[in-house]
Amino acid sequence: EAAVRAGHRMLAQSESRAGRLETVQNIGDAAALLGYVHIVGQDLKAALQALEKGKGLFWLGGNDGSATQQIEHLIPAGGALLFACFAGPTGYVIIVTESAMRAVALPRMSRAALMELQRGGVDAKVLGGWLYDYGIGPDDPDHWHGAILAMGETLHDRVWQPLRVQLDELQIAPGAELVWFHQGGSAVFPIHAAWQQTSSGRDWIMDRYTLRYAPSLQALLVGAGRPSTSGRATGDARACPQRTCAGPSCAFFNACGARL
Asked: Which H or E run includes 103?
């Protein structure tokens, strides 16, 4: 909590676009770590609020985390919301259904493991991992196809296998809608492309469930036409150096391409 507060103080003092973006990302990391602490402490509602608030500074109007108060309106009928948290030594996904909320531990998706998959390591000097494969994909289609298959198999093994056990226990039927909320660097991974080998061939996760991505609960509320309880929900992303961005009327807004 202290790190999040310190980040907000730094954000108020940042004057450049690059400085603000770096600070926003650091606040998001600190908020995700706070979410992890709440998960370990079994306070899942507090964890969801911390994760939500950590994402809010990317959006015009901010995000005070109050969108979590309307979470029941966003759960797909017969489906689930899935909130990733890969900020600690053990990864977690919080499953929220119409009747339950539980955290699923992913021991092999820690922050360090995620960074290794994403770029070759937390302190990698040369870009590797999925980002490297993604970068050379257009120039080497065969390599890219192999990378997608390899990553899909890894994601099923490390993420979906434990999740499927819990989804089955929660009676989430095949074909049900799942909404995935990424956290941090996990946003680059093709979560929908996960698969496992069976006696009859590849079993793709997207053939079992209907998958949808959402950056935050607030963004999902806007997409569903429901206002945030803070009254400030907006679907516009921002990268503005101003402490308070007024949208199109802000002098920095169009100049820096803040509307993404």
From this structure: strand 101-106
